[in-house]
Amino acid sequence: MSLKLNLIAAVCENMGIGKNNDLPWRLKSEMAYFTRMTSESKNNKKNVVIMGRKTWDSIPPKYKPLNNRINFILSRSNVYLDGYKDCFAFKSLDEAIDKLNNKDYKKIYDNVWVIGGSLIYKASMANKYFYRLYLTEIKKQYDCDTYFPKLNGNLKEVKDDCVPEEVQEENGISFVYKIYENIDYKEE
Ligand SMILES: NC(=O)c1ccc[n+]([C@@H]2O[C@H](COP(=O)([O-])OP(=O)(O)OC[C@H]3O[C@@H](n4cnc5c(N)ncnc54)[C@H](OP(=O)(O)O)[C@@H]3O)[C@@H](O)[C@H]2O)c1
Asked: FRET partner for 79 with CA separation of 20 to 30 A, picked from 39, 91, 92, 155?
């Protein structure tokens, strides 16, 4: 089975994803969806979540590392991960992909989720292993300083039984869970 990079992100109407190294919104049910999607796995294996160093820094200490998942953190410098279980640092996305493609390592994880931020999403969407983008579209504008990269034309919308199709609502804010698949993805 070829590696599949699944991206998961929540964006507002102006494609913003963050502000002051935090999320611009508080949507508990959307956060629960993120946790469910990135945690659910088969055969007692954990999933891998790949994130940039700033996203790692933005996770409150009590939720770090993201539990029941193997945390991969990308940084060009040295990230201090002592004392954190199931956490590994990589100097590039390619280095992380090499690890994921290692024959023995492949036996220990199930799905791979890229969880941001901006440049990590961009590099992942440009990678041949980019499979799907799970995008929560929030129907509101927020003031943001970090944005989701431009989507290109190689995506088609698909369905997934695990993902509700109806419009969601929390505290008067509407959002919808969309899934886009990379039409250029090929099993090797
Ligand atoms: N709405 C969402 O779904 C969502 C998801 C994730 C994050 N966010 C938000 O987005 C913001 C954080 O995202 P961000 O885009 O600012 O930062 P980020 O992507 O999380 O982290 C950027 C850092 O990652 C490292 N990095 C980036 N590209 C790399 C590469 N190709 N190879 C190795 N290391 C690489 C560098 O770390 P070093 O500087 O250490 O070298 C860089 O400074 C926060 O506001 C967060 O709350 C939102």
From this structure: 39
